[in-house]
């Protein structure tokens, strides 16, 4: 992406209008990132949450167990940060797995 500045020059009575376009700084905007959040509840088994974190967030067992415990104790935790499309997919995967297993586990996303 580029940003352009339009300069109008040469507007004397003996000349026609002369326009030049010069490129100033290159403008690259990074896409926004989204936090995926896991919420605690009283019913979802700890092992299921650990399994979900391993399966959909590429964590090893120790990492998954640690994050699960953080959610259990604090009520909520960020489990990853992704582009909008990837975050949406992760949330859908977690919510679908929870629904299939009839657990009330909740997962949401929030713009960083
Ligand atoms: N609090 C649940 C229990 O005691 C465990 C749990 C952890 C549930 C994390 C959800 O996101 C969660 N069985």
Automatic annotation (TrEMBL):
Biological process, per Gene Ontology: protein catabolic process; proteolysis
Every Adaptor protein ClpS core domain range: 29-108
Keywords noted in UniProt: Hydrolase, Protease
GO MF entry, a single one: peptidase activity
Domain of life: Bacteria
Renumbered residue ranges of the record's region Disordered: 1-20
Pfam families: ClpS
InterPro entries: ClpS (IPR022935), ClpS_core (IPR003769), Ribosomal_bL12_C/ClpS-like (IPR014719)
Subunit architecture: Binds to the N-terminal domain of the chaperone ClpA.
Function according to Swiss-Prot or TrEMBL: Involved in the modulation of the specificity of the ClpAP-mediated ATP-dependent protein degradation.
NCBIfam families: PRK00033.1-2, PRK00033.1-5
Similarity remark: Belongs to the ClpS family.
Protein's recorded name: ATP-dependent Clp protease adapter protein ClpS
Gene name as annotated: clpS
